[in-house]
Amino acid sequence: MQDWNKDYMFGYQFLNGCNPVMIRKCKEIPDKFPVKHEMVKGFLKKGVTLQEELEAGKIYIVDYDILEGVLTSSDQVCLNAPLCLLYKNRLDQIVPIAIQLSQTPGEKSPIFLPSDNEYDWMLAKMWVKSADFIVHQLVTHLLKTHMISEVFEIAMHRQLPAVHPVYKLLKPHVRFTIAINAVAREKLISENGVISKISSLTGDGIAKVIRRAMETLSYESLCFPETIEARGMKDAPKYYYRDDGMKIWEAIHNFVSAVVEIYYESDETVQSDGEIQGFVKDVSFGMNNSDSDHCPFPEFLNTREELVKYLTVVIFTASAQHAAVNFGQIDWYGYIPNSPSIMRKPPPELKGQVDMDYIMESLPDHKRSCLVLGTVWDLSQFQKKELFLGTYPEMCFTEQPVKEAIKTFGEKLDEVTKEIRSRNEGLPMAYCYLSPDKIPNSVAI
How far apart are CA 102 and CA 81, in angstroms? Predict the structure, then answer.
C-alpha cells in the first residue's frame, strides 16, 4: 500500500504481479501511439534519444487493444483500451514514461507523462491497471488456464483409457478442473455474475473479449520458453516470473521426457499410438477458434520429443501458469486503487482538469469494492487438502522406473524451492507464486 502509486511499483507489477504476460519489448513506436523523443527525453538516460533506447532494447510496451470497442453495461461506466510505454532505467527498474488512454490518438486523447499534474498521472495509471484487471481475469486467468485445461481434460477422458500411461500422467493435473469451471460459468461470467457486477462489462462484452483472445491463441503461445522469446523478455531485469517459470518448465519437461522414454521406444511408437493421436486430434478440435480448416494446435504428433513438449504444455498450464496468475490476486487487487475493477467516470480529454475528487468518483464504489475483495480473497486460497506439483498420491504407476522418475522430479522441485527461497531472502519483496511448494497440481480454484 505504501508504494502502490510509485512508478517503479506500477512497472514491477507487469513483471511479477497478477498479469505478467502483457508486457513486451517495443522495437518501434506504433503509429497509434505517437510518442516523440521531446515528450519523454526527461525520463531517459541523459544524452540518449528515444530511438537509441528503442534500438538498445530498453523500451517496453503494454497494449490493451483487445478491449477496443467492447460495449459496457451503461453510459454511466466506462471501458477504454489504453497503451503504456515503459523504460528500463539505470536502476534496472521498469517504469512508465507515457500513457494514452485510447487506441485513437488526437486532441481528445492526450499522451500523459510522469511530468504532468500528479492527479493526471495517477488517474492515467489507474486506467491502465483497470484495463489490466479485466484482461487478466478474462484472458490470462480464465481462458488461458481454466478453459484450456478443461479442453485437455475432456479430450483425455474421451480418448485415453485409464490404463494408458499418459492418462495416469495427466490425471493429477486435471483434478477438479471441470467442477471449478462449472462454478465459474455460473457465478463469475454469467450475465449477472461477479465479473458483470464488479466491472463495466455485460455478458456479451465478456464473451466478445474471450472470443477476441481466442483469435490469437496458439499452441506456441502456451509453450513458456517460446512465449518469453516472442515477447522479447529474455533479458528483462528482475523478471522473476520468467526466471522461476523457466526452472519449472525444465523440471516438468525432464520428468515427462523420462516417462515417455519408458513407454515409447521410438518415434514410430508415438505415431502408431491411436489413443494418443485421438487425444491430440480432440484437443485440436476443441481449440479451433474459427470456421477454417486450419487449427493453431497440432493435430498429429510425429516424434517422442513432440509428445514430451505437448504433455509439458498440459501440465505447466494447469499447475505453474495457473499458480502464477491466480494466487497473487489478494496481494495485488486487495488495495482497490492499485487495480480498479471499473472506472465510473470517463477518462479526461484534456490535461490539468483532474483533482482528487474526480479520482475518487472514478474508482469503484463501496459495494463493488467489497465484492472484489471477497472474490479475490476466495480465489487466492489453497484447498484444504491441496495437492502440490510433483505429488502423485494415488500411485497409478506400478512400474519401478516411473516411480524413480517421480522421485527424481520431486527432488528437483525441492531444489528449485530452496533456490527461490534463498533468492527471496535478498529481495525487498519476495516472489513466491512459482515456488513449487506453492504450485497446486491442477486448476482447482
Answer: 5
Residue 60 φ/ψ, nearest 5 degrees: -125, 160
Please give the grid coordinates belonging to residue 250.
525444465
Global model pTM greater than 0.85: yes
Distance in angstroms (rounded) separating the CA atoms of residues 123 and 319: 35
Neighbours of 124 (CB within 10 A): 27
Which grid cell sits at 212? 477476441
- Angle at Cα 328 formed by Cα 324 and Cα 333, nearest 5°? 135
Per-residue pLDDT averaged across 35-62, rounded? 98
Query: Residue 162 gets which letter from DSSP?
Result: T
Residues 358 and 115: their CA atoms lie apart, in Å, by: 19
Residues 201/343, Cβ–Cβ less than 8 Å: no
How, if at all, do strands 111-112 and 83-88 pair?
unpaired
Say if residues 362 and 120 touch (Cβ distance below 8 Å). no
Q: In this structure, how many other beta carbons lie within 10 angstroms of the beta carbon of residue 271?
A: 18
Q: What kind and span of H or E run contains 111?
A: strand 111-112
- Please name each of the domains of the chain with its CATH number: 117-438 (1.20.245.10)
| The C-alpha cell that represents 58 in the structure block | 530498453
Contacts of 107 (CB under 8 A, 6+ apart): 349
How far is C-alpha 348 from the chain's CA centre?
29
Closest by Cα among 109, 119, 121, 79 to 350 = 109
CB atoms within 10 A of CB 365: 10
Secondary structure class of 93 (helix, strand, coil): coil
What confidence tens digit (pLDDT) does each residue in 149-206 have? 999 999 999 999 999 999 999 999 999 999 999 999 999 999 899 999 999 999 999 9
Task: Give the model's confidence band at 7: pLDDT under 50 very low, under 70 low, under 90 confident, else very high.
Answer: very high
- The sheet with strand 111-112 has its strands ordered as 24-25, 59-63, 83-88, 94-100, 111-112
Q: What is the pLDDT of residues 346-355, one digit of tens each?
A: 999 999 999 9
* Pair 60, 23: CB distance under 8 Å: yes
